[in-house]
Specification:
about 425 residues, alpha+beta, Immunoglobulin-like, five-stranded mixed β-sheet, five-stranded antiparallel β-sheet, 10 helices, about 35% helix, elongated, ion channel, membrane, KCNJ8 protein
């Protein structure tokens, strides 16, 4: 709010506002690229303009399993309710055609004995109750079939067959939704950030993966793909170009033994898409590294898949994951509170290509880090010495202040006697 003219001149106020606006840095953030795979593993992809919707009905079971829970429960309820109403209408028509609805047949005379198709079915409500009893095999005993109508026997057989089909499909759908493979993937976790550091003399891209359950993932394998927008020499633009990159695994097979959290490593060599990227170029790269973990659930035998991705902003250059597995009283303990913690380490800021061409860069980086580490140790030692000297001096001053000075007493004869306390 501007000040009044009587207090501050208008020219001064305008100049001050202009100066404040000039001081504020004008930083335009780079628009964030839409990632292909979210951190929770969901694919960020929307299907539009699908004209052949009938293909989903050809595989009705998979369609029902893929639906949301609220839609599945509505279909589950409506399928049983509609089948009960449909066969209730059929039972009512059978009873009406046979004449069971006639009031005269309710109290027949002794001379004529009337046998209905279904006993105690004289309205649509009673027919609906009989339909429920037939399909769910409750059988309260008040309404029952007779041998009078062959059509009623045919309807009974038809309703039993339809009821069994509905039970098999809907209960199977509910079971598959509760035992879906991606539910097991909820306990497979990845580190929020990935790192690039030197391991065995090579720049490596690393991330950590772990399993929170004690039941293991059998034949677990990890794949890494780089997704980026590329343009071919012919001018064709490929918005989602996928490139597989190898994973450094000391075992011949690609399987891992995921009994404890592991650090998955990718050596940045000539085959890697990260070969020409340096630390300064990483923030400007429009790429996404997708990690896919596949395996078989030990308890159910269902193949599961867990996914995540790392964009350029989530890759830390010159960091390393802290160890989280320790041995305590003969048992290996995993501290998941440090699962994503990293520490800064010495790493060259150049690309892997430059490091291969000039191996001396790595030696110089390690020497500088060693010198800086020694200097930091010296500073710490000197600070400790200074602190100890200051403490000793303060203790001496305190002790000297506690010493009582000599006191002289003057006797009436004028003689002086000194006493020391």
């Amino acid at each position: 709010m501007l000040a009044r003219k009587s207090i501050i001149p208008e020219e001064y106020v305008l100049a001050r506002i202009a100066a404040e606006n000039l001081r504020k840095p004008r930083i335009r953030d780079r628009p964030r690229k839409a990632r292909f795979i979210a951190k929770n593993g969901a694919c960020n992809l929307a299907h539009k303009n699908i004209r052949e919707q009938g293909r989903f009905l050809q595989d009705i079971f998979t369609t029902l399993v893929d639906l949301k829970w609220r839609h599945t429960l509505v279909i589950f309820t409506m399928s049983f309710l509609c089948s009960w109403l449909l066969f209730a209408m059929m039972w009512w028509l059978v009873a009406f055609a046979h004449g069971d609805m006639d009031p005269s047949t309710e109290n027949p005379s002794n001379s004529t004995k009337w046998t209905p198709c279904v006993t105690c079915v004289r309205s649509f409500t009673s027919a609906f109750l009989f339909s429920i009893e037939v399909q769910v095999t409750i059988g309260f005993g008040g309404r029952m079939m007779t041998e009078e109508c062959p059509l009623a026997i045919t309807v009974l057989i038809l309703q039993n067959i339809v009821g069994l089909i509905i039970n098999a499909v809907m209960l199977g759908c509910i079971f598959m939704k509760t035992a879906q493979a991606h539910r097991r993937a909820e306990t497979l976790i990845f580190s929020r950030q990935a790192v690039i550091a030197v391991r065995n003399g090579k720049l490596c891209f690393m991330f950590r993966v772990g399993d929170l359950r004690k039941s293991m993932i059998i034949s677990a394998s990890v794949r890494i793909q780089v997704v980026r927008k590329t343009t071919t020499p012919e001018g064709e633009v490929i918005p989602i170009h996928q490139v597989d990159i190898p994973v450094d695994n000391p075992i011949e097979s690609n399987n891992i033994f995921l009994v404890a959290p592991l650090i998955i490593c990718h050596v940045i060599d000539k085959r890697s898409p990260l070969y020409d990227i340096s630390a300064s170029d990483l923030a400007l790269q429009d790429l996404e590294l997708i990690v896919i973990l596949e395996g078989v659930v030990e308890t159910t035998g269902i193949t599961t898949q867990a996914r995540t991705s790392y964009v350029a902003e989530e890759i830390l250059w010159g960091h390393r994951f802290v160890p989280i597995v320790t041995e305590e009283e003969g048992v290996y303990a995993v501290d998941y509170s440090k699962f994503g913690n990293t520490v800064k380490v010495a790493a060259p800021r150049c690309s892997a290509r430059e490091l291969d061409e000039k191996p001396s860069i790595l030696i110089q980086t390690l020497q500088k880090s060693e010198l800086s580490h020694q200097n930091s140790l010296r500073k710490r030692n000197s600070m400790r010495r200074n602190n100890s000297i200051r403490r000793s001096n303060s203790i001496r001053r305190t002790n000297s202040s506690l010493i009582v000075p000599k006191v002289q007493f003057i006797t009436p004869e004028g003689s002086q006697s000194a006493s020391e306390t």
